[in-house]
């Protein structure tokens, strides 16, 4: 019979070589992810805060005593006694923005809350909820008086 297939792989089924290649690619991707984990927003912000803080400190003006102490410690990078006000301001604003953004991940926002109403006074509540009413009952066109009710009972 012409056109009838018996045995073999179904149409669209991958062969051994394709399956092996896909497994190797998946293993390589997994290994790469282990070596270089993706940068998460919070971690990136934490790194930026540290960098911005260091750069802010670098351009901050120091006193003569602080500069002498830094030289004695061997920290020659941060001994610019006069500092650089423009760069300091730029880096401080970057640090402030990063710290503000990072705060969202470190603490829940504080929301305004209405003060609870004081509990009601029980005596006042009893007076407000007590209603007095009179019941008028007519029998045969006559008003029933209190004495007639007591007599009937």
Structure, explained:
The chain is mostly helical and 153 residues long. The model has no long low-confidence stretch (mean pLDDT 77). The protein has a two-stranded antiparallel ribbon with strand order 1-2. It is flat and about 105 Å long. Among the domains are: 71 residues, no CATH class; 31 residues, no CATH class. α2 packs antiparallel against α4. The chain is built from six helices and two strands; from the N terminus they run αααααββα.
Query: What is the mean pLDDT?
Result: 77
Identify the strand order in the major beta sheet: 1-2
Question: Total number of helical segments?
Answer: 6
The number of distinct β-strands equals 2
Overall 3D shape: flat
- Tell me the radius of gyration: 43 Å
* Uncertain residue ranges: none
Largest sheet: 2 strands, antiparallel
Alpha-beta content class:
mainly alpha
Can you tag this structure with a few keywords?
6 helices, flat, 3% strand
Condensed summary:
With 153 residues, the protein is an all-alpha fold. It has 6 helices and 2 strands. The protein has a two-stranded antiparallel sheet with strand order 1-2.
């Amino acid at each position: 019979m012409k056109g009838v297939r018996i045995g073999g792989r179904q149409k669209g089924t991958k062969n051994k070589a394709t399956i092996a290649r896909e497994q190797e690619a998946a293993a390589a991707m997994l290994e790469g992810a282990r070596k270089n984990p993706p940068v998460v927003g919070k971690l990136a912000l934490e790194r930026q805060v540290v960098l911005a803080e260091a750069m802010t400190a670098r351009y901050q003006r120091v006193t003569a005593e602080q500069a002498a102490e830094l030289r004695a410690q061997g920290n020659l990078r941060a001994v610019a006694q006069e500092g650089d006000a423009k760069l300091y301001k730029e880096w401080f604003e970057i640090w402030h923005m990063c710290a503000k953004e990072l705060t969202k991940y470190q603490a829940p926002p504080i929301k305004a809350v209405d003060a609870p109403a004081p509990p009601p006074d029980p005596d006042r509540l009893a007076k407000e909820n007590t209603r007095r009413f009179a019941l008028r009952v007519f029998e045969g066109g006559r008003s029933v008086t209190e004495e007639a009710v007591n007599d009937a009972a």
